[in-house]
Design a protein that fits this description.
- The protein has 23 helices and 6 strands.
- The chain is mainly alpha-helical.
- The protein has 2 domains: 321 residues, no CATH class; 109 residues, no CATH class.
- Strands 2-4-6-5 form a 4-stranded mixed sheet.
- α1 packs across α18, α7 runs antiparallel to α8 and α7 runs parallel beside α9.
- The termini are far apart.
- The mean pLDDT is 93.
């Protein structure tokens, strides 16, 4: 029965790969924050700073660390480069998860861990997005794997203790500079090493902090990076939002997570860094309730759960029939369930996209995307000037940087008294924008507050629909 579960996991991985390749080829924005990341990538390609004064036009605030957009810019920029990079990172994360469990408990544990990680709607839908998370997760998991292979083994590594600490510190620093919330790996590894040797644990923690801090000191000469990294990232928190996303994600891991918790003591003995990482990731779950956070905040916990679950599968050998039934149940849930409101299940994608490769549906979908991209470009040629947009990436693809990036963050900062929106609202009232691209031209819009939407609709009127966006042009008079 375990082989059936592993086979389903392999099929889920193939579906994710096919889905990922299709998303890489699609020319327009798929997810809201993709546009923000693409805007940063485009700025870096043009040699312009990405950390600016958000009070100056264009109103730009970047809550992201620079490593992912910089890497995507080096790969050529555009959605294709960012999505291909994210997809490769997703594959790398799955390999590390499998190797982490397999190295300690055999290939069956490794296959089980990789299957639990991959056979899920979160992995499927996040893997091909032009988002920063998976690069950070790759370095975080890579640092943990390196520490387990070197600093936590009985015999010394080939590079010695200091060399092992230096490599781990660099990996954890790269995780931080991919996304500044990725610090759990360094903390978990330092605690695990410190339980074995206090001096080495403190050395690892100090080396990691220094490796993170040195670039920060260099890039924060005007103090703007500190504001954006920390003060502007202190978003409001909602218990209801935390409960909503947590309950939905737990449905897809309702078998694996309790099993991992039960076998945590066994994992602590065999892979202490991963066990501590699991606990820290579990404690970090309330972070999903921040404004701007989503299911991506569960990625570290999903990876840690998968590793511990793989170890648990090996330890449960005396109860073989039951363990295999539970593994199959977890895989079935991961494949059949979706994450509302926009992440379809593996089964749904397999039914919809895989046959479309042979029926021509995928080709038609990609062609429609190219037609919409051409329509954006044609419209912008006839309407020179700044554009206010909800989906920023579609503007960047058409060669026009957005006047505002990103509306959720900026308007939240305005409500917190950290950003003055008056100049933007005056620009809307005076019809300074050549056009407004917006997905939902009503007060129900999720990215612009109702006060901004009411003002936009007062001074701009719908003129066309391109892809997901309504195009609003200035009202006459």
């Amino acid at each position: 029965m375990a082989r059936i579960a592993w086979g389903v996991g392999l099929l889920a991985a193939l579906v994710a790969l096919v889905h990922g390749v299709l998303m890489v080829l699609y020319p327009l924005q798929l997810d809201y924050a993709e546009g923000v990341v693409l805007q940063l990538t485009d700025l870096l390609r043009r040699g312009e700073p990405i950390y600016r004064d958000p009070q100056q036009f264009p109103w730009l605030v970047s809550p992201y660390a620079p490593l992912f957009p910089a890497t995507a810019a080096l790969l050529g920029g555009g959605f294709a480069a960012g999505r291909a990079l994210a997809l490769l990172c997703a594959v790398g994360c799955a390999v590390l998860v499998g190797c982490a469990a397999g190295r300690r408990a055999g290939w069956g544990a490794g296959l089980t861990a990789a299957t639990v990680f991959v056979a899920s709607p979160l992995f499927l839908n996040w893997a091909p997005l032009d988002r920063v998370d998976l690069l950070g997760l790759l370095f975080d998991l890579g640092g943990l794997y390196w520490v387990e292979r070197t600093l936590l083994r009985e015999s010394p590594s080939a590079v010695g203790e200091r060399g092992s600490i230096a490599v781990a510190a660099v990996l954890f620093a790269l995780a931080f500079w991919s996304k500044q919330t990725f610090v759990l790996g360094l903390v978990a590894a330092s605690l695990a090493v410190g339980l074995k040797c206090r001096r080495a644990g403190l050395g690892l923690l100090a080396a990691g902090v220094i490796a993170m801090a040195v670039p920060f000191v260099f890039l924060n000469r005007d103090g703007r990076l500190a504001d954006i990294f920390f003060r502007f990232n202190a978003m409001p928190w909602s218990a209801d939002t935390t409960r909503l996303w947590t309950v939905e994600w737990l449905r897809t891991m309702v078998v694996a997570l309790p099993i991992s918790a039960v076998f945590l003591a066994r994992a602590w003995r065999e892979c202490p860094a991963w066990a501590i990482y699991f606990v820290l990731a579990l404690l970090s779950v309330p972070g999903v309730g921040r404004v701007g956070a989503w299911y991506n905040y569960f990625l570290p916990l999903q990876a840690a759960t998968a590793v511990v679950c793989g170890l648990a599968w090996s330890a449960a050998a005396p109860w073989r029939p039951m363990r295999d039934v539970l593994l199959l149940a977890q895989v079935a849930l991961g494949v059949l369930l979706w994450l509302p409101p926009t992440m379809p299940s593996v089964a749904d994608v397999a039914r919809g996209e895989v046959p479309a490769l042979w029926t021509g549906g995928a080709t038609r979908w990609l062609s429609e995307g190219k037609r919409d991209a051409a329509a954006y470009e044609a419209l912008l040629k006839t309407h020179p000037g700044p554009v206010l947009a909800e989906n920023l990436g579609n503007l960047v693809v058409a060669g026009r940087p957005a006047a505002l990036c990103d509306p959720i963050t900026l308007f939240t900062l305005s409500e917190m008294g950290l950003w003055d929106e008056s100049e933007l609202m005056r620009a809307i009232e005076e019809r300074r924008f050549a056009a407004v691209f917006i997905q939902e031209p009503s007060p129900r819009n999720l990215r612009f507050p109702s006060r901004a939407i009411v003002l936009i609709l007062k001074h701009y009127q719908p003129a066309a629909r391109i892809g997901p966006d309504w195009v609003l042009l200035p009202r006459p008079g």
